[in-house]
Amino acid sequence: MRPAATCLLPCLLALAGPALADAPLFLIEQSGLPFDLGPGAPRNQPSRQANSPNAAPNSLANPANSSTVYANSPRNPANEKRVIFLGDGSVVGYYAPSSAGTLNLFDRAGKRVAYRPRDSKSLFSNDGRWCGTVAAAQGGGFAFGVLRSCATLF
Prior knowledge:
This protein is mainly beta. It is built from two helices and eight strands; from the N terminus they run H-E-E-E-E-E-E-E-E-H. It has one domain (23-152).
């Protein structure tokens, strides 16, 4: 994959996936993002308490964020409709919302790779690093623009 920051909005709108709620994953460069999608925007800052990996809604210790809960499990058929895929069509994982409003991203084996806190447009790694941005995709679902360092987590 090549960085797609120069075509962020067109890429988000043009990427079509295998199913309506499936989500494309593509590389971005933080410097090419509009302010409201980057980590400088107040709601997207890693230092914001609500974005912390230690905040209860985001925590790995919270069962709502674990793949051991059936709703988040790779065995749950509902997650087959929330596939995360690359531009070449290969599947790298899936996403599942929690009851607390956190959007969890899992690899194919069910390991949580990243999360989007409620009221944020940003993705964070499990250690709280800013990873990228989330946008609603045309036709439903999401599109995930991530830094290269986070894409390797999948």
